[in-house]
């Protein structure tokens, strides 16, 4: 189990250009597998273009109380990149005028940003329709100062989306660290107790499943059924929907794939599972990702690979929805992760 | 020629069997796909059965494929190992139950 980020360890793979080099060379350079560009060109879907903006996803910082094996952010307690209140103010200006209906706050553990609550309160005033916080659950039990987070979420009608790799302790702790399962269960019970995730409740609680190893997620509907049955029977926990998300071969998951000698097989699996009908709705076509320092990306994965939007507008301070619409999406081979099987996005399946 | 009888990369080429007999190959894959669809049994249950049979058949390709398939369906290590024991129990039971035939024969020849 990791305890430090790749960045802190000084790993080669903490460098985005090193990751992009791996994703472009080897099996994709020698023609064994088609590049993502070549693949989507087969069905005339290149270049991928941004449609109307629906989701503004803001990464408020890479700091996290956990160091998960698969983390594409390379987040952890040692990451110090945190969005300042000034950048948040710039985001708020955009939130007030954007046509996007969903604001999606992510990290790291977004709650660890010292201005998180201020930002949520201000953003709530702006009246966004769906307001998501990607919470890792354990943060709610990590420290006394976070114990009231469920009530805070409820007060602002925040839609809580939480990671839960499995309904058993062993598989969860293997991926996310010792003790994570028990804390997550406790946090889910607390959220349920105030109405989150209950049938017919407006307080949305969705779970995110992503595989604990070098394999793709199974069918989202079947997995949801299994999760619901097990969590209800074993812990009396309820939730609304399960989003099955594919691990993208970047950052810490790429490091794991290479170290475990699974990289090539995993890329084969992704390419074999390629589904051209998932391409039309990949999340980068309706989402814009904002980094902790205010720069704009097509998605959170491109943010981590430091692939900025292909537009004159590069920063939240110069935001212009018209200029950003219709831009060409920046792609590489990691994009296969979002087009495998039923497709994968922060909102689950797309096909 | 490969120096070993089995090459993991060959599993990916399974579909190529249609190249030498398209009709039968396609019929097989159509049947195969249909068998594993959700039915009276869930796809998850079918995958576990397939994993157990893969072991009793001692087919490395199948073990490779259904270990991955069961993992993808959220099956735990404990469930996987129990399934294999079911296969092993039937295998050993099938051997031992023939002991009755041996006993019958001994009783007839030397009773």
Could you walk me through the main structural features you see in this protein, from its secondary elements to its overall organization?
The complex is a heterodimer of chains A (351) and B (111). By secondary structure, chain A is of the alpha/beta class. Chain A has one domain: Alpha-Beta Barrel (TIM Barrel). Chain A is built from 15 helices and eight strands. The longest helix of chain A has 16 residues, at 220-235. Chain A starts with 5 loop residues before the first helix and ends in a 27-residue tail after the last helix. With 111 residues, chain B is mostly helical. Chain B has a domain at 36-110: AhpD-like. Helices cover 67% and strands 0% of the residues of chain B. Chain B contains five helices and no strands. Chain B has helices spanning 22-35, 43-56, 60-72, 77-97, 99-110. In chain B, α2 (43-56) runs antiparallel to α3 (60-72) and α2 packs across α4 (77-97). Chain B is extended, with a radius of gyration of 19 Å. The mean pLDDT of chain B is 95. Chains A and B meet through α10 of A and α3 of B.
Layout of secondary structure:
The complex is a heterodimer of chains A (351) and B (111).
Chain A lengths: L5 H4 L6 H9 L11 H7 L12 E5 L25 H13 L4 E5 L9 H10 L4 E6 L3 H4 L6 H7 L3 E5 L5 H8 L3 H14 L11 E5 L10 H16 L6 E3 L6 H9 L3 H10 L3 H4 L7 E4 L5 E2 L2 H5 L16 H4 L27
Parallel strand pairs in A: 1-2, 1-7, 2-3, 3-4, 4-5, 5-6
Antiparallel strand pairs in A: 7-8
Chain B lengths: L21 H14 L7 H14 L3 H13 L4 H21 L1 H12 L1
Which consecutive residue ranges of chain A, at least 5 long each, have pLDDT under 50?
none
Low-confidence region ranges of chain B: none
Q: Specify the CATH class of chain A.
A: Alpha Beta
Give the helix tally of chain B.
5
- CATH superfamily placement of the domain at 36-110 in chain B: AhpD-like
Oligomer: heterodimer
Q: Taking strands numbered 1, 2, ... along the chain, how are they ordered across the largest sheet of chain A?
A: 6-5-4-3-2-1-7-8
- Secondary-structure element pattern of chain B, one letter each: HHHHH
Tell me the fraction of residues in β-strands of chain B, as a range.
under 5%
Q: In angstroms, what separates the terminal alpha carbons of chain B?
A: 55 Å
Largest sheet of chain A: 8 strands, mixed
Shape-level CATH architecture of the domain at 36-110 in chain B? Up-down Bundle
Q: Largest protein interface?
A: A-B, 19 and 12 residues
The backbone outline of chain A, from C-alpha atoms, is globular
Mean pLDDT of chain B: 95
Strand elements of chain B, count:
0
From the N-terminal CA to the C-terminal CA of chain A, the straight-line distance is 34 Å
